[in-house]
Structure prediction request, 47 residues.
Amino acid sequence: MAYVLNQNFLTAAVIGSGKLEHGNSSVEGEKISLTSEELDYLNLIIT
Prediction:
């Protein structure tokens, strides 16, 4: 969590079941937007 909070751009951490559908269906989740550069930096892996 500290890694997420200490970035120089806006980030979000989802803590829970980890199901992608849950984040996509949430109104707040739709407001999250990252550039491809930011995604590469975070090295996100969705399984």
Summary: The CA atoms of residues 20 and 26 lie 10 Å apart.
